[in-house]
Amino acid sequence: MFWRKSPKTATKDQSEAPFKTGAGPVAERGQGTASAEQQAKGGAVRAGTSSDADVADFIARMKTMTPAATGERGRLVFAMDATMSRAATWEMALAQQSEMFAAVKSVGGLDVQLMYFRGTSECRASKWVSDPEALARLMRSVSCAGGLTQIGRVLVHALDESARHKVNALVYVGDSMEEDIDHLCARAGELALLGVPVFLFQEGDDPVASRTFREIARITNGAYCRFDRGSARQLRDLLMAVAVYAAGGRKALLALVEQKNAGARLLLQQLGGGAAGA
C-alpha cells in the first residue's frame, strides 16, 4: 500500500500512520481558520499573475541552497493541497509536477515522498519513491475534495521524517492558508533548526497565503514563487530546476540548461552571479 493515513483518520492499524505517536496534537494546533484580522490585512485580491520579482527572489534564494556532498541520495518531501479550490487547475499542476520528476530520472540520486491533504481531516503520505513513473501514477491517483488547509500537519510530518533520516527539502504547492500563521511559523522554525528548507509554490494570489508562504520560506531559508494558468511552463521549468539541482548540483543544472530549460538557465545565472530580486 503506497498511501498511508494520518493518525486522525487511521484505522486501528497504526502502522499506516505517517506521523509519529504524539505528533497529532501538534498538527491540530497548526490547523484552524485564519483570523478576521489576518484576512483584513490582506486587502483586495488581485488577479492571479506570476510576478517577475517573485521569480527573481525565488532564484536568488536558491543561490544559497548548495547541496551538501554527503554521498547519500537526496530526500525530498513533495506536498500538495488537494482541496476543492484547486480543482480547476489540478490536471495542469499534476502534469507539471510529473515532468519535474521525469527530469531527475537521468540524474538519479533523489528519493521523493508524496503527501497531500483534502476533506475535513484526510492527510496522507506515500512511501519513499525514486521511480518517476511510479511518482506520476501516485499523483494521478489523487483528486480534489472540499476542506480546509492542513499545512501544519505537512510541516510536522516533514519534521518527523527528518528526525528519522535527513530530509533535504520540502516542496509545497497550494493556493490558500486557513490556519494560524504563528503556529505554522513555529513549526517552520523547527524545520530551520534541522536544516530543512521549504520551497513554496502558490497558485493564484491569495494575500493571506502569500504572506504566510513568504514568511515560511524566509524562516527556513527556502524560497517562494507564485504561478497561475498563464505561467504553467514557468512552473514546470522552476520545479525541474529545483529537483535536478537538489539531486545533482551545478553539473546537473548545466545539463538541463543544454536542454533549453529556462528555469535552469535563470537559476544557473544566479548561482554564478549576483543575487537578484528583492
Question: Features of this protein?
Answer:
278 residues, alpha/beta, 7-stranded mixed β-sheet, 10 helices, globular, disordered C terminus
Provide an overview of this structure.
α1 packs antiparallel against α6 (151-164) and α4 (90-104) runs antiparallel to α5 (132-140). The chain is globular and about 45 Å long. The chain is of the alpha/beta class and 278 residues long. Residues 9-49, 66-70 and 270-278 have low confidence and may be disordered. It has helices at 23-29, 36-41, 52-62, 90-104, 132-140, 151-164, 181-193, 207-220, 232-257, 262-272; strands at 4-5, 74-81, 110-118, 122-129, 169-174, 198-203, 223-227. It contains ten helices and seven strands. The chain has a seven-stranded mixed beta sheet with strand order 1-4-3-2-5-6-7, sandwiched between helices. Helix content is 45%, strand content 16%.
How would you sum up this structure in a few lines?
With 278 residues, the chain is an alpha/beta fold. It contains ten helices and seven strands. It has helices spanning 23-29, 36-41, 52-62, 90-104, 132-140, 151-164, 181-193, 207-220, 232-257, 262-272; strands spanning 4-5, 74-81, 110-118, 122-129, 169-174, 198-203, 223-227.
Topology overview:
Elements: E1 4-5, H1 23-29, H2 36-41, H3 52-62, E2 74-81, H4 90-104, E3 110-118, E4 122-129, H5 132-140, H6 151-164, E5 169-174, H7 181-193, E6 198-203, H8 207-220, E7 223-227, H9 232-257, H10 262-272
Helix pairs in contact: 1-6, 3-10, 4-5, 4-9, 6-7, 7-8, 9-10
Shape descriptor reads globular
Cross-sheet strand order for the largest sheet: 1-4-3-2-5-6-7
- Estimate percent helicity: 40-55%
Number of helices: 10
List low-pLDDT spans: 9-49, 66-70, 270-278
Strand content: 15-25%
Arithmetic mean pLDDT: 73
Oligomer: single chain
Following the backbone from N to C, one meets helices and strands in this order, namely EHHHEHEEHHEHEHEHH
State the distance separating the first and last CA atoms.
Answer: 44 Å
Instruction: Quickly give the structural class.
Output: alpha/beta
| Biggest sheet features | 7 strands, mixed
User: Compute the gyration radius: what is it?
Assistant: 17 Å
Overall strand count: 7
